[in-house]
Write the structure tokens for this entry.
Amino acid sequence: MDSSHPSTDHLILVGMMGSGKTTVGRALAARLGRPFFDSDNQVELDSGKTVAEIWRESGEAAFRSLESEALREAVQSPVPAVIAAAGGVVLSAPNRAILAKGGTVVWLRVRPETSAVRVRSGSHRPLLDEHAEATLRRLEEERGRLYAEVADIVVDVDDFSVDQVVEQVLVRSRARR
Ligand code: S3P
């Protein structure tokens, strides 16, 4: 195999803010001995700014464009990676096409009442204010069908620990091979 070609065997996590993509993704990468990419982190590395700064100084559209670039970079990895794709990645049709070609897409599905508690830590979510649960519920209504469209596997995370979610993703992604 020519190792300079992008892998199409990535494990890609999608889902709402607070669904655990970064935490679960990091643990999965460690278990599988794979590199880990997080699109928000990649945007910050590429731009030298935090997500909040980009959003404040240049607006959401500028952030979304950097986010698409970060996703393209992540799937370029020639070795299979674990990729945490931030919550809004699915909003763009070209991004959804990249996800579909990039490997196995796992939707970490979370109820808004669960994610609202989890998003209290973290400062990279300018969409959320003190009404996080209502906003998450509205965004979930808008995006749910998009996550469903791209997902090969759906894992409901609400009642499970990080280790249990990791285990489910491993078992179910292996079963697809
Ligand atoms: C967003 C999700 C965030 C971050 C930004 C916008 C969204 O990432 O990219 O605040 O639109 O859902 P996480 O999904 O990692 O929280």
